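testing teh design pipeline on a random one, pls ignore if ur not involved
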């Protein structure tokens, strides 16, 4: 399968994350499945005239395009010309190229939240008028229409994340190569369900503290970060704590709250990322599927039952009180 990867408005962090795929590395894994990068701006040797000829061949349908991957949001400005971001040497905007190549591809993948929904690129005043490929934040329709479907029968596949987990990209590509990804395998934001059916909360190493609502009050403390430090891992989709990054880490394991970077409009939460907005002392964002009354009752009971070990450790930067060693009954 031929894969063309374009980098639009963004930081390039998704490519850096992809290179962290391990055991095997991304090139061995995809190459062994017959997935061929015909061009990637950061990884390929070809440049200049070679790339221009390749793009012309794809546009003329002389070179088949199985998968078009786009990393970064697409700038539409000024005045919907897209000329804030030109594809160097072609005289054409990135927006023009993506709109021309997407209908020729069997599948189109938005790599990262910027390409999927606009992401950090659109934060603030969004002076470049950037959007995602098929979404503008939570709204359907980006530079491609809300009804766009690739030749393979799928909408734009949104592998969101800032950056996305490398395995989410490689697993998606492998599924496409095996013709094993169907519309039913995508959620309402067209994110692959193999990671979007999980919450970041699943597998979090702070879950014991969460169960007792034993909360950290400052960054670097080891308690749950939901109550005071803005963590929304109980609402955010992603299997980050089930398959840790680089085999060992995640945001919450590193002591930083989950900011739901796989979700549209995460970049503008309207509060500091490390603060939990509250009304009458109750967090505004409650865990998914939990009614407010249940949460309040559960939190009260949990706090009342918190063991001293857990309550003390929650506001420490390391384990202060170890678990009690139980003597086997004879």
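output:
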């Amino acid at each position: 399968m031929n894969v063309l990867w374009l980098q639009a408005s963004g930081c390039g962090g998704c490519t850096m994350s992809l290179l962290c795929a391990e055991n095997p590395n991304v090139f061995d894994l995809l190459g062994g499945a017959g997935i061929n990068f015909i061009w990637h701006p950061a990884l390929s040797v070809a440049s200049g005239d070679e790339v221009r000829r390749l793009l012309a061949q794809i546009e003329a349908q002389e070179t088949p395009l199985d998968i078009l991957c786009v990393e970064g949001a697409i700038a539409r400005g000024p005045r919907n010309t897209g000329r804030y971001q030109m594809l160097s040497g072609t005289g054409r905007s990135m927006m023009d190229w993506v709109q021309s190549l997407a209908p020729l591809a069997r599948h189109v993948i938005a790599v990262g939240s910027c390409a999927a929904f606009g992401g950090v690129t659109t934060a603030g005043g969004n002076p470049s008028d950037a959007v995602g490929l098929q979404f503008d934040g939570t709204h359907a329709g980006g530079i491609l229409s809300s009804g766009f479907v690739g030749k393979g029968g799928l909408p734009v596949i949104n592998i969101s994340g800032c950056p996305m987990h490398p395995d989410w990209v490689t697993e998606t590509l492998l599924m496409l190569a095996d013709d094993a990804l169907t519309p039913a395998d995508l959620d309402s934001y067209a994110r692959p369900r193999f990671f979007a059916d999980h919450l970041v909360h699943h597998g979090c190493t702070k879950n014991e503290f969460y169960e007792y609502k034993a909360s950290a009050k400052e960054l670097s403390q080891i308690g749950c970060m939901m109550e005071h430090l803005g963590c929304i891992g109980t609402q955010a989709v992603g299997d980050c704590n089930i398959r840790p990054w680089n085999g060992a880490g995640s945001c919450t394991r590193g002591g930083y709250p989950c900011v739901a970077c796989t979700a549209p409009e995460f970049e503008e939460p309207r509060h500091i990322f490390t603060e939990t907005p509250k009304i009458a002392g109750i967090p505004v964002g409650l865990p998914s599927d939990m009614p407010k009354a249940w949460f309040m009752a559960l939190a009260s009971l949990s706090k009342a039952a918190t063991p001293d070990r857990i309550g003390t450790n929650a506001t420490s930067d390391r384990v202060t009180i170890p678990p009690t060693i139980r003597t086997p009954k004879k």
